[in-house]
Amino acid sequence: MKRKGTGPDGLIIVDKPAGITSHTVVARVRRMAGTRKVGHAGTLDPMATGVLVVGSEKATRLLGHLALTTKTYEATIRLGQTTVTDDAEGEVTASAAARAVTDEAIAAGVAELTGPIRQVPSSVSAIKIDGKRSYARVREGEEVELAARPVTVSRFEVHARRDVVAEDGTPVVDLDVTVDCSSGTYIRALARDLGAGLGVGGHLTMLRRTRVGAYGLDVAHTLEALEESFADNVLPIAAAAAAAFPRWDVDEKQARLLSTGVRIAAPGLGVDGPIAVFDPEGRFLALIEEQGGKAKSVAVFV
């Protein structure tokens, strides 16, 4: 039984609109859910739209595991202009005519940024330096240089090229791209680095996240739709876990032991990462990992 005054145990897959922060989305979901216990997996910048995975009550404990999954983005990269934020929200700091950049050069630049790479995040990211957000330090006039970190870009595909003129009169090139990447990858940093490698500078003008792990735009809801019918659009925690992780159905004895933290024989699925455990009645019990032939509980949900 749910405690009086608590919200649903589940995920809310939001199609975030442009112009608001992920924190604002969480605040609105808290009000709709009637609980303070709401969080999200994977921040989207105010300019960005698309899939934002929000968890309520017990499902907030899934978020840290979901945040480690791969993500897919549709984006537009502008070659020929550099901005202070690496996206269209920042002031243009340099311009260079880009129409002479060939498709072959672009393809080579994209290839350099595909696969396992080391990426320097944007200085206006939310990464903390000595307890303070990098973007806050930049706003105060501090020069910030973040360390490169390993990320994986499994797909970086250019769909279309448009030769256009920017507002300042610079002949620029807009590229529509799709990116599949690991958690922690900054798409605006890809835009910055592609432009830098081509010698003309670059930044991001549009970003839409279309998938986070198992959850795509096909199961996402606008804030307006959630306002109209919130309860009907919550993905129950059992369904959320079943969609995101490999499944292991256990018998009553195994369920009882796992729910009390006892290590039992692993299912032998050979999975590198969490496995969702379900009891004979289909209730979601726990996330486990296989270690040394045993099932190690990562998180118990009963």
Automatic annotation (TrEMBL):
Provide the GO biological process annotations: mRNA pseudouridine synthesis; tRNA pseudouridine synthesis
For this chain, one GO molecular function annotation is: RNA binding
User: Catalytic positions?
Assistant: D45 (nucleophile)
Q: Which residues form the Pseudouridine synthase II N-terminal domain?
A: 30-187
Q: Does the keyword tRNA processing apply?
A: yes
Swiss-Prot/TrEMBL keywords? Isomerase, tRNA processing
Q: Ranges for the tRNA pseudouridylate synthase B C-terminal domain? A: 188-230
Q: Which EC number(s) does the record attach to this protein?
A: 5.4.99.25
Which InterPro entries does this entry report, sorted A to Z?
PsdUridine_synth_cat_dom_sf (IPR020103), PsdUridine_synth_N (IPR002501), PUA-like_sf (IPR015947), PUA_sf (IPR036974), tRNA_psdUridine_synth_fam2_C (IPR015225), tRNA_psdUridine_synth_TruB (IPR014780), TruB_C (IPR032819)
- Using the UniProt record, name the top-level EC class of this enzyme in a single word: isomerase
Any idea where the tRNA pseudouridine synthase II TruB subfamily 2 C-terminal domain is? 245-301
Question: What SUPFAM superfamilies does UniProt report for this protein, alphabetically?
Answer: Pseudouridine synthase (SSF55120), PUA domain-like (SSF88697)
Q: For this protein, what reaction is catalysed?
A: uridine(55) in tRNA = pseudouridine(55) in tRNA
Similarity section: Belongs to the pseudouridine synthase TruB family. Type 1 subfamily.
This molecule's function is given as: Responsible for synthesis of pseudouridine from uracil-55 in the psi GC loop of transfer RNAs.
Q: What is this protein called?
A: tRNA pseudouridine synthase B
